[in-house]
Structure formats: structure tokens, C-alpha cells
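Ligand: glycine. Inputs:
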Amino acid sequence: MRAVLALILMTTPALAQEAADAVAPEQATGLVRETPEPVTSDNWMVVAANPLASEAGAKVLRAGGSAADAMVAVQVTLGLVEPQSSGLGGGAFLVWYDAETGEITTLDGRETAPMAATPTLFQKDGEPMGFFDAVVGGLSVGTPGTPMLLEEAHRRWGRANWSGLFDEAIGLAEDGFSVSPRLAALVAEDEEFLSVAPATADYFMPGGSAIAEGDTLTNAAYAETLRAIAARGADAFYHGEVAEGIVATVRGAAQPGVLSLEDLDAYEVVERPAVCAPYRGAEVCGMGPPSSGALTVGQILALLEPYELAAMGPDSPDAWRLIGDASRLAFADRGRYMADTDYVPVPRLLDPDYLAGRAELLEGDDSLPEVSPGMPPWDHAALDLGDDASIELPSTSHISIVDADGNALSMTTTIENGFGSRLLAPGGFLLNNELTDFSFSTHDEGSPIANRVEPGKRPRSSMSPTIVMEDGAPVFVVGSPGGSRIIGYVAKTIVAHMDWGMDPQAAVALPNLVNRFGTYDLEDGTAATDLQGPLEELGFEVNVRDLTSGLHAIAVRDGTLIGGADPRREGLAIGE
Ligand code: GLY
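Predicted complex:
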């Protein structure tokens, strides 16, 4: 343990170094897990959810490619080897730091609701449908954004030959890849839903038997789709045979959806300004609406700013009281106010005076008995909105990359639920169920819900791809899968790194404690459960459960890159 702590102290930013000094060693031996040494490099680094995907990105970086080039290779490989989490049939958000200009921006490749979708899309007889009744089939499928995001990122920031970025994934799809333990386990758990569509069942359960760990799986249809995109760009996805296959699959499903060729033709990636929130002298920058990620992570951190978490340390129940209640307050605002700003005005949720007032609510000694949304300032006439109760279950994948020029990329990518809508398009990729990230209800006690379904709208996300900036340069690149718990996972990792001085590997491995709506979730099988009694005494309702984050982080310090991959999944950091 001493070696681990020494390494933590050696590799943290100056800010975190100060905080680490404040953590008594005996405190740091409780919740903090012993972790392998983080991967370090002076040149470039890629962290992704599967070793084959990380290696595909590493090959591009080794050959002098940019972070955007590497991301394309990583994403198209993940779509093959981790098909349950992300792929061509889904959407993604990308945060980019440009080393040449010093600017940070974001690309929104979120799925859109088809133009034929109505606010009652997920209602039957006037009542919201059951979640999985809505997920499985064509109704939940939004217009995919990932293929166009890949092209747009490469057009802006790529320097490698576009078509070459697909070679690795095409080779793996044609020659076969070894089914990972996680993919095999998830297929085994999901056989019932995967059986609903014959093409999906044939791929994941050939001859009626679920694919097993170590099986060699090929995907000729996916290789063909990749060849078409490599040759003709994203147009080969949004028009012609691939697009027609998507629409036929959605409309021909047992529960048909309303996606059309016109929706695919009209799809656009949108550049949006990064949303940044100050924390401990740094700027925590990420994805604004339609994601709730940066606003909610930013609110949590702003509410924690007045409190000395560093001095409390990671084993302090009071530190977790503050984190838990800050998160509850932020989630209350999220449920009422956050949605696609192209459709719904959103108030100034990061207004410093507003957040200073909310932070005072945390001054007591016990957990807050009740939490409700605040009254943030508006630039628009204030809207009377209802509270949303959208369900988001764990899913998704995160990619963190820093290239040799210092460009940094943080991208969270998803098909929503594990295996998405369970519809495999003829092009060899799963289609998303992203539309179930909308509220199934349109109103709450007579007031409209901001995140209701509307044609062309992007469903609210929790994805929180983040780049922390200090003195105008990136110091920490991080993100995670995990549905709406993503926000808590990312906030925890930032606090662990910045307040408690942990290196990226220790910070991502730190047990997860997540509070969204009042119940405190503690990670089963970890020292987090030691906090159950103390947190219950503070007034929290506690729930011990699996909390399978997939955090991927890179710290940048004095020209050295330090990477961490979440031990809960199959990710790998590679740096050279
Ligand atoms: N569907 C996961 C998310 O967007 O947060």
C-alpha cells in the first residue's frame, strides 16, 4: 500500500498534491483500493473498454494519427467487440481540446426522435408503457448519430487517411475476434430479449446456443458496412442499402417504430459550446444539453466547493453526506429543467449566486430530509415545468485519448440499454433504444415535462464526457458508462483525483457511492459498505448493489500522461 500511496503522491497535479498531503495515511487505507500502477507515457495515450479497441486506437496513434483519428478506429472496433454498448446504430457526445488553438468544444451526435414521433410515443391507453415493453423493438429507435460524428470529428481534426481507420475492425470482423467474458455473460443474461428478433438471435445465439467466452465470432455484414463507409463516408450509412436496411428493420419489428429514410437523410451533428464549471481553481468542461452531464456534474462540484473535502478524506461519512446531498440537489434540478435546448429553454443552472444559495442547504450535520428543485435564474420567461421520471439503465462506453500533439478527446458513446433495441440491422450492427431516455409521461400534475418526446428532438442524456482544464490546458480527461449513475461516477472520480490526490487508476477504482434521488447506493463487495451504518445514522436510506462503472481517465501532468481503466469492466489503457 505504501508504494501505491507514494505513486499517488508522485503523479498528482499540484492542486491535488496539496489535498493528498491533507489526507492522513490511516484514512487512505480504508476505502482506497490497492491498484496496479497506472500506465504512464510521455507521448500519447488511449483508454477504451476493450483491449482490441484500445489496440486499434494505439496503432493509429503510433503511426502519428490524431486523437480524432484514433477515436474512429476505437469506435468501429468497439461496435464489433463490445456491440452491447455502442456502435454505428447509436449516438455519442465528444469533447475536444485543440492543442493548436487552445480551445475546447463539443460535438453532439445524439440520436433524434423521428419526425413521426409524438409526445405519447411510449403510452398505451393513456398510460406510460413498462420500460422494457418500450425498449425492445422498433419504437425506441432514434436516428443514429455516431457514423456522422465519426466523419465530422475526422473532417475537423483528423490527419490520417479516413479509409485506413477501418482496416483493423474490418480485419477482426472478417477473421473473427475472441468473445470476451463480459460479452458472453451479458448475452447469457439477455437471451429472452435477444430472441425477439430472428437476426439478433442468429448472431448472438447461433444454432440456439449463446456465444461463449473465447468463441471466435465473425461479422461479415459489419465488415461490408465498414468497407462502404471507409470508401464513401457517412453517406454510405445514411443513404442507400444500409439506410434502407435500418428502416426496414425498425418498421418490420414485432413492435414497429416510425423511423424513416427522411429522418436518416435529415440527420445532423451539432457543434455546441462546452459547458464549464469552476472547481478548486480548475474548469470542469463537458457536454451541455441535450446531455444533463456537464450541468449536473458541474452543479454537484459547485455545491461541494465551499466544503473542505480534502481535509475530510475519502473515509469520512461527512464527506459522503456532502457528496450525496449535493448530488440529490443537482438531480432535482436535472429532473425538472434539463432537456434538449433546441426545444426547451433551460435556466442558468450554473449561476454562481444560485449555487451558493443551494450550497448553504448542506451546512447541517445530517442528510437533507427533503430535496426539491431550486429556482434558478432564467434568461427566458420562467417556465412552469413538471418533474421527469425517465428511467436510464446502465449501458454505454467511454473513450479517453490524448495524442502526441496534446489534443485531448473525451467521448461517451451508446446504444442506450445493453444490446439497445435488440434489433440487429442487416448491416451487422445493433440499433439503439435511445428514445426511451425521453420521459414516457408528457405532464406532471398538469405541468409539461421538459424532456417529453417531440419530433426531431434529442432525448436527455446523462453521458458526461469531461475534460478538466487548468491554466487553459487539459489536466484530466474522464467519462464513464452507467445510465444516470454516470454523473455520480464521474463526480466521484474528479473528487478522488482533485481533492484526495489519487492517480487516475486509484481514482477510477475507488468504490462507487452514488445518490441520485435519495437512496444512497453503495458498491457491493467493497469497503464502501463500511459506510452503510454511518450513512444510515446521518439519515440516508442505503442500498448495497453492483455499481459497474466503466471509468476511463487520463491525467496530464508536466508532459506525462497517466492513465487508468476501470477494473470493473474490460478496459485497457495503452500509452507509449
Ligand atoms: N442512454 C444513456 C445516456 O444517454 O445517458
